[in-house]
Amino acid sequence: MALWELFIIAVGLSMDAFAVAVCKGLSLGKVKLKQTVLVGLYFGAFQALMPLLGYWLGSNFADIVESVDHWIAFVLLGAIGFNMIRESRSESESVNSSLTFRAMLPLALATSIDALAVGVTFAFMRVQIVPAVVFIGVITFALSAVGTKIGSAVGARFEKKAELLGGIILILMGIKILLEHLGII
Questions:
Q1: Average pLDDT estimate for 116-143
Q2: What is the pLDDT of residues 111-129, one digit of tens each?
Q3: Which residues make Cβ contacts (< 8 Å) with residue 69, sequence separation at least 6?
Q4: By CB neighbour count within 10 A (0-12 exposed, 13-18 middle, 19+ buried), where does 12 fall?
Q5: What is the per-residue DSSP string for the chain?
Q6: Closest to 95 in 3D by CA, of 173, 15, 156
Q7: Which of 129, 136, 138, 184 has the fewest CB atoms within 10 Å of its CB?
């Protein structure tokens, strides 16, 4: 696989993480460098680990993984999106700006499900998996960190409306993933 092909795959995989990082930046308000790096690390690490796991699964259980990855992403993104919409409608300030493992794990997992499927594909293509996953992780880290800063800049001005929009975006991403995998779009 050529480097430019891997770059396109890495950017494509990181778009979900970028969008969620923008949403996280919205909820955080003004972000510090440490927070930006932490968000990038969560998303970058999962985008690197999931293809590695997919590569292993692709060697052993390809039919099972490919048949459910879209449902997992759909449910996780939908649940997170509905929660964001609910929080945007509440009277009190209940925006989840937490960067704890418990708060970030479902986000990082939901945005990296497609990377699991790519890892399965990599197994069949005999891609050099370690350099590929490191590259994907670095690209995702960078784009997620930038997304967090962008969300922070926008969020200070729009607060609740931005969180509502972020929730809608997450739900639409989940629907898109599901429809793509079902062959509807």
A1: 90
A2: 888 888 788 778 877 789 9
A3: 113, 114, 116, 117, 181
A4: middle
A5: --HHHHHHHHHHHHHHHHHHHHHHHHHH-SPPHHHHHHHHHHHHHHHHHHHHHHHHHHHH-HHHHHHHHHHHHHHHHHHHHHHHHHHHH-SS-------SHHHHHHHHHHHTHHHHHHHHHHHHHT--HHHHHHHHHHHHHHHHHHHHHHHHHHHHHHHHHHHHHHHHHHHHHHHHHHHHHTT--
A6: 156
A7: 184
- Exposure string for 65-96, b = 16+ CB within 10 A, e = fewer: bbeebbebbbebbbebbeebbebbeeeeeebb
Question: Residue type for 6, please?
Answer: L
pLDDT of 22 > 90? The answer is no
Q: Are 23 and 16 in contact (CB under 8 A)?
A: no
Q: Cα(first)–Cα(last) distance of the chain, in Å?
A: 27
Tokens of 174: 């989940």
